[in-house]
UniProtKB/TrEMBL annotation:
It comes from the Eukaryota. InterPro entries: Homeodomain-like_sf, HTH_SB, RNaseH_sf, Transposase_5, Transposase_Tc1-like, WH-like_DNA-bd_sf. GO terms for molecular function: DNA binding. This is Uncharacterized protein. Residues 1-51 form the Sleeping Beauty transposase HTH domain. Signal peptide: none annotated. GO terms for biological process: DNA integration; DNA transposition. Residues 68-137 form the Transposase Tc1-like domain.
C-alpha cells in the first residue's frame, strides 16, 4: 500500500499557518494530519522554498518504505523464510512484486541467501552421541529446559536431504546471550557444545566476561 500523498493545497496551507506563527502541534490538530508530516513539509519548504513535488532521480520504489522495512525485519527474524513466503506477505498488504525485487531489497540491507551447511557424521561422532544419549536417559524434562544447544540439525535416515537457504549477513554469528533471551532460558543454564573451535572460543569468551 502506497503512502498517502497530500495535495498541493494542503501543503501550502501548512506553510501558510507556519508563517503565521503556529507550531507543528497546532497545525497538525487543525488540519488533522500527523505532526511528522507537518514537520517534513516545512523542512522541505525551508530547503527548497517550494511545496511542489520535486523530480525524483531514477525509477521510483515499487514498495513503500514501510513494506521494505517489514521485508528486512521478517528475513532477519526468520532466516529460513523463502522468497515465495515474502512475496505472499507483500501481496497481503496490496504490493505485488517479483522475487527479484525482494532479493534486491534484502541485498541492499546486507542480507544474502546462503546454503545452510551441516557436516556429515563420522563413526566416532555417532558413538559419542549414542553414549551421551544413553547416559542421560534418566534426566528429567526440567533439566533439559536449562540446556542451550550449540547445534541443531535434521538427519534423514531415508530419502534425500535437500539444500535449505537462509538469509544472513556475511560473517554474522548470533551472540550466545541473545539465544538465551530468545529461548527464555533461566540464567543458570548449561551450554552443550561439541568442542568445535569456534564454539569453544565463544564459550571461553563468555566465561572470561
Amino acid at each position: 500500500m502506497k503512502n498517502k500523498e497530500h495535495t498541493r493545497h494542503v501543503r501550502d496551507t501548512v506553510v501558510k499557518n507556519f508563517k503565521a506563527g503556529f507550531g507543528y502541534k497546532k497545525i497538525s490538530q487543525t488540519l488533522s494530519i500527523p505532526r511528522s508530516t507537518v514537520q517534513a513539509i516545512i523542512l522541505k519548504w525551508k530547503e527548497y522554498q517550494t511545496t511542489a513535488n520535486l523530480p525524483r532521480p531514477g525509477h521510483p520504489f515499487k514498495l513503500s518504505a514501510h513494506t521494505r522495512r517489514r521485508l528486512i525485519r521478517d528475513a532477519a527474524k526468520r532466516p529460513m523464510i523463502t522468497q515465495d513466503e515474502l512475496q505472499r506477505s507483500t501481496a497481503e498488504v496490496g504490493d505485488s512484486v517479483h522475487r527479484t525485487t525482494i532479493s534486491r531489497i534484502l541485498h541492499k540491507s546486507g542480507l544474502y541467501g546462503r546454503v545452510a551447511r551441516k557436516p556429515f557424521l563420522k563413526d566416532n561422532h555417532k558413538k559419542c552421541r549414542l553414549k551421551f544419549a544413553t547416559s542421560h536417559l534418566g534426566d528429567t524434562p526440567n533439566m533439559w529446559k536449562k540446556v542451550l544447544w550449540s547445534d541443531e540439525t535434521k538427519i534423514e535416515l531415508f530419502g534425500h536431504n535437500a539444500k535449505r537457504y537462509v538469509w544472513r549477513k556475511s560473517k554474522k554469528r548470533k551472540n550466545l546471550m541473545e539465544s538465551v533471551k530468545d529461548l527464555r532460558l533461566e540464567w543458570r543454564f548449561v551450554f552443550q557444545q561439541d568442542n568445535d573451535p569456534k564454539q569453544s572460543k565463544i564459550y571461553n569468551g563468555m566465561v572470561q566476561k
